[in-house]
DNA sequence: GCCAACGTTGGC
DNA sequence: GCCAACGTTGGC
């Protein structure tokens, strides 16, 4: 079973929003590397760290699960959507996504700052890499355990 | 709001 | 196929 970290801006969609909805299509990923992780490597049941980005205290706030195989993100075909991609067509969709299901909220936020303080234990963790901007990234078994133990 | 990092676009 | 310009991400 693989593990992942997925970023969301809490003003757009927070862990509380996911808790309220139960399950949510992960729309709006427009980065090929992130898409490829969802399309090629994610499996139903994989664990996901839900990360709040672009906010007062960025960090991991909860646990979710991959709840579907990848399928085309409908927002790419919708001219009204912020995520509309005029170069994409239903016959040849560019962007894929998965559904994500709420599992639990962590008792407290494991902040980016705290994660940095455990950089050594976390080893090669892409979230902590300089200039990292990926919104979907892999988490190793060891990293998953290390981070869960912090909560 | 600033700006560093970095991905994408498009002219050549 | 190079690379400058531009847009976006996301921490601060």
UniProtKB/TrEMBL annotation:
Position of the signal peptide? none
According to the entry, every stretch annotated as the EVE domain falls at: 2-149
What InterPro entries is this protein classified in? 5hmC_binding, EVE_domain, PUA-like_sf, THYN1-like_EVE
Q: Which SUPFAM superfamilies match?
A: PUA domain-like
Q: List the PANTHER family.
A: THYMOCYTE NUCLEAR PROTEIN 1
- Return the protein name: EVE domain-containing protein
**Species name for this entry?**
Denitratimonas tolerans
């Amino acid at each position: 079973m693989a593990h992942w970290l997925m970023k969301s801006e809490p003003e757009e969609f927070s862990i509380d929003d996911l808790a309220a909805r139960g399950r949510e299509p992960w729309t709006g990923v427009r980065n090929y590397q992130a898409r490829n992780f969802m399309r090629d490597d994610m499996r139903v049941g994989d664990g996901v760290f839900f990360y709040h980005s672009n906010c007062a205290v960025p960090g991991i706030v909860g646990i979710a699960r991959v709840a579907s195989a990848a399928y085309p993100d409908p927002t790419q075909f919708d001219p009204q959507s912020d995520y509309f991609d005029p170069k994409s067509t239903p016959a040849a969709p560019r962007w894929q996504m998965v559904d994500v299901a709420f599992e639990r909220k962590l008792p407290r936020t494991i902040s980016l700052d705290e994660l940095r303080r455990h950089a050594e234990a976390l080893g090669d963790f892409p979230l902590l890499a300089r200039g990292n901007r990926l919104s979907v990234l892999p988490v190793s078994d060891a990293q998953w355990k290390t981070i869960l133990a912090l909560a």
